[in-house]
Amino acid sequence: MPIEDSSFKKLQGIVGHTHCSRKKEDLVCYAYDATGHAYMPDAVLFPQNTNEVSRILKTANEDRFFVIPRGSGSGMTGGSLAVNGGVVLVMTRFSRIHHIDKDNLIAHVEPGLVTGSFHRAVEKEGLFYPPDPSSSEFSTLGGNLAECAGGPRALKYGVTRDYVLGVEAVIPTGEIITTGTQTTKGVVGYDLTRLLIGSEGTLGVITRMTLRLLPLPEAIRTMSAVFAQVETAAETVSEIIRRSIIPRTIEFMDNASIRCVENHLKIGLPTEADALLIIEVDGKPPDIDMTIEELKTICISRGANRVDVARSQEEVERLWKARKSISPALFQYGPDKLSEDIVVPRSKIPDMVRMINRLKVETGLMMVSFGHAGDGNIHFNIMLDKKNKGALKKANAALETLFDYTLELGGTISGEHGIGITKTPYMAKEIGPVELMLMKKIKKAFDPNGILNPGKIFKNGFEI
């Protein structure tokens, strides 16, 4: 449903000529995301308030064109791509913090605010917003809600949905709704807030949110552990959890990720190591000092070659720079990347690591694993040139095997990247036909004309 000239003029009347464009040079900037796929939209809009979003969606229903919500475009599964054309609704002008309520530990904010900026704003007030995706310096809060983002601190603190008390949103037909509460408890009616979180912009456009905050931890300690075998590192993670120790984070890097980051940053990472764990604890200083010593003992007893506790903020920043640089550094291994984010029960991480090693040997492909080992979330990447059809065929077959084994272990095929367009072929592996039908009915109830973010989540559309 390409947008007609008459519809475009209506949109100009809603947001103003300067915030509405069909120029090719503007469209190209919003045609792609972190997947590497690109689809040219028909127009780009930059609304600034909820009323404008409402009017845009009402116009889309009247004139039958598609609307695709977008934050920073950092998504990994194509959720903000205009796969069928239409209007990209860029929410970056919604970037205000309305109020940080220190008495009730909540904040009222807008979806276009960059996550890292929000972190710094609340920390200045002695407060803490735990969700911290690796893209936090450029991803937006709205995108985090749309994908239910996690990050390293999810091990101890949970994911985005655990910190959203309520939202203001515009549903596809243009009505403005308010969901949830400003209180920790609230069980009046269905939980529409939880329904919207993780819906990938298919059920509504969030225009304001109420987020739960915590007191800022008094202190943080960070350590790294070097292992000669990746299986040993995985078994160490399981042992830490078995000992009832819940660190703030347990991050994992395999040898391929260590080597590519070291080649990229030149910061002295142990390139001979088969695996590196980055472990962080927070809380009161005497308590975390004891925990760090216990963690050192566990790592050494389980076979770590070396354990280092960061002695300065510079050392901490070096470790986290290494961890957060993996994804862009991987392109040293090939021009294209198939990036997945499987999750398995923590006790099954060693089994998954062994499976990945078998896939490397069987396929001969460059495979790189890293991620949030503490909660079983492994970011699995295959680096290749997609023009090599033989390699691409082997890679897709390897993904089938990986997903099947993930589900066999009791895991899920996506921990924080969502489904978007890249994982739709695999969704029915995990979700049964009755459950899929219920989801399609929900989509139909919210979006009877199918105008909001079409082509996402459901492989063959959402028609019942």
Characterization of this structure:
- This protein is an alpha+beta fold.
- The protein has four domains: 5-90, Uridine Diphospho-n-acetylenolpyruvylglucosamine Reductase, domain 2 (2-Layer Sandwich); 99-215, 2-Layer Sandwich (Uridine Diphospho-n-acetylenolpyruvylglucosamine Reductase, domain 3), CATH 3.30.465; 219-327, Alpha-Beta Plaits (2-Layer Sandwich), CATH 3.30.70.3450; 334-447, Alpha-Beta Plaits.
- The chain contains 16 helices and 18 strands.
- It has helices at residues 5-15, 24-29, 50-63, 115-124, 141-147, 154-157, 192-196, 230-242, 255-265, 285-301, 313-324, 326-329, 349-363, 389-408, 427-430, 433-446; strands spanning 20-21, 43-45, 67-70, 87-90, 97-101, 106-109, 127-128, 164-170, 176-180, 205-212, 214-215, 219-227, 249-254, 275-283, 306-309, 336-343, 366-372, 377-384.
Backbone CA Rg: 22 Å
Strand order of the main beta sheet, please?
15-12-14-13-17-18-16
Number of domains: 4
- How many runs of DSSP E, i.e. beta strands? 18
CATH topology of the largest domain: Uridine Diphospho-n-acetylenolpyruvylglucosamine Reductase, domain 3
The N- and C-terminal alpha carbons lie at a distance of 21 Å
Write down the CATH class of the largest domain: Alpha Beta
Low-confidence stretches: none
Helix segment count? 16
Q: What is the global morphology?
A: globular
CATH architecture of the largest domain: 2-Layer Sandwich
Structural class: alpha+beta
